[in-house]
Structures are given as C-alpha cells and as structure tokens.
Amino acid sequence: MKQDFSRRQFLETGSCAVAAGVLGTTVPSLVSAQSSTEIIREELSHAWVFHGVGCNVFAMPDINGDGVMMVDGGLAEHSGALVDSVLNTFGKDRIDLLVNTHWHPEQTGSNVTLGAQGSEILAHEKTGMYLRNSVQSALFEGRYGPLPEVGLPTKTISGTGRMKYAGQEIIYGYLPAAHSDSDVWLYFTMLDTLVAGGPVTSGQWPIMDIRHGSWMGGLLKAYETLAQVVSADTVVIPAHGPIINGTDILRMRAMYTNLHLDLSEQLNLGMGPKDVVNMGLLDDYINDFGDPNLFLQNAHRSIQRAFVPD
Ligand SMILES: [Zn+2]
C-alpha cells in the first residue's frame, strides 16, 4: 500500500521542529544590488534554517570560540542578504565555516563572498572538482563556474567521518550518484538533526542531475543510508521544502524502493520513459510532491543508461 505524505504532515513536522525554538520569522526584505530577497528564518533547538535563497540553509551559532557554521549558501544573487541575515541572527561579524552539501549553484552561491572573507569551506572532493570547471547544472541557466580560487573548498572529504565543531559532534557521509554525485549529509548528534543534502526534498520531487551521475539506484541507496542515520523524531533539513523528520525518510525510502522495482520491471518489459509516465506510477503522491512526470522520466532514463549503455 502506498504511504501517505499529506501536506498536513509536513506542516506538523515543521511545527514540531519550530516548537523547540520560536516561530519562523520573515526577515524584512534585504535588498541587494541585483534583486530583493525575502528570507524566512526558522529557529530550531540551537540552530536556524533560512529559507528563500535558492535552497535551505542551516546555520549554527558560535560556541567555544569556533565561530559560526553555515551549511550551504543559496544562490549567488541572494548571498549578500543571506550572509547579513545569518550574521544579524547570531550577532557576529563573520562566518567561520561554510559547508557545501554539493556543487550546484543553489548551494554554492556564497562561496566567493565567504571565501574572500577568509571562511573555511568544506565540501566533498567532487564538489571541488566541479567548481574548478565550467559545467551545466540541472536547474541553472547557462554554464556555472569555474569559481575563482577564493571560492573553492579549502578542505575536502571523500567518505564517512566525524568532526567536532562549536561544541557539537558531527557525523558526515557521502551519497554517491544520488543527486549530483557530490552529495554529503551531516548529522548533528546532540541536536538529533540531519542536514540531508540534495537527494532529499519535501513537497516536491528531487532533481536528478543525470548529466552528472545521478541515477535511481544511487538515489535509493541514499535513502537507505539516511534511514540508518535517523530515528523517528530526528529533525531532517531537506535541500528544498519544509523541514521533515526521520519517519518521513523511512516512508520515502519505501516509496523509492517500490519505484525502483517498478521501473526496473517496466524497463525489462521494453517500456520507455513516456510509457512509465502514462502508467501513473506516482499518481498517489501528486498531492504531496507535485507533478511527477519529469522526475519519472529522469529516473527511468537513469536506469536505462545504467543497464543499457550506449
Ligand atoms: Zn542540487
């Protein structure tokens, strides 16, 4: 039986997370040279999430003198407003550590600004590789990069590990070929909070950057990995969309497991991307995630490429 992902549930899990702090607040528009940016701030227990800058941004205040930590930086056009908002929130004048969950422009738009101010930038080694080149991205118009040297990661990771920062123990890991082929997750053990990165979205289907290695098997594996990290009430920050929890990750894992089986079966029967769209394999989830057609086509194509290479 299909699982229920009601919008009500997303609202409830979102407000659960908010209950630990204060209600999400809208920062009055902070106008940058190019655009006006309206940022929604949501306070968690001992951390904040900033919405409205191209992706969800997680930030933690300075403890023990380590400095402010920010995970992802939004699009470059919102970077000035975002950085101002984070600094105002914490009453600080610099962000010491920026983590990129992957290389996409929606996540790395503050790299140059913060790198120029001397912030440490931590990312997977493949994020560094992509940012050193000019690449086309799934959602971004035109080519992105190369970023100037100052916006490149100063420290890279390649697999699973642990680090301590600002009094927190953080476990991190790599999710190969899931969304961008450079995706990392971070789990803050004392906060019981997972910053899940690109493979996880709520209220919308994940983007599959199949041009850069994303495929359905990798996406499913990402959920299998994250399902091992969370417990039912873990606060989960998706790359896009409202905050969810560990139970939602388990439900999504079940949904993608079924979809992977269905798509593999249909491929074996000779069905193409349009055929699987017409079959309505994800129609039960339209109310929760929106129109699934693009996601379905990319998911099918990615399996086809994996098993029937050109
Ligand atoms: Zn992305």
Major sheet description: 8 strands, mixed
Determine the fraction of residues in helical runs and give it as a percent range. 25-40%
Strand residues, percent: 25-35%
Report the mean per-residue pLDDT as an integer: 89
Strand order in space, largest sheet: 1-2-3-4-5-6-7-10
| Overall domain count | 1
The CATH homologous superfamily = Ribonuclease Z/Hydroxyacylglutathione hydrolase-like
Ligands present: zinc ion
Q: What general outline do the C-alpha atoms trace?
A: globular
CA(first)-CA(last) distance:
36 Å
Please characterize this protein's 3D structure:
This protein has 310 residues and is an alpha+beta fold. The protein has a single domain, classed as Ribonuclease Z/Hydroxyacylglutathione hydrolase-like (Metallo-beta-lactamase, Chain A, 4-Layer Sandwich). The chain is built from ten helices and 16 strands. The protein has helices at 7-19, 79-90, 105-108, 111-116, 125-131, 216-229, 246-268, 273-278, 286-289, 293-307, and strands at 25-31, 36-44, 47-51, 57-60, 68-71, 95-99, 120-124, 135-136, 143-144, 155-157, 161-165, 168-175, 183-188, 193-201, 235-240, 244-245. α6 (216-229) packs antiparallel against α7 (246-268) and α7 crosses α10 (293-307). The longest helix has 23 residues, at 246-268. Zinc ion (ZN) binds next to loops. Zinc ion (ZN) is lined by residues 102, 104, 106, 179-180, 198, 207.
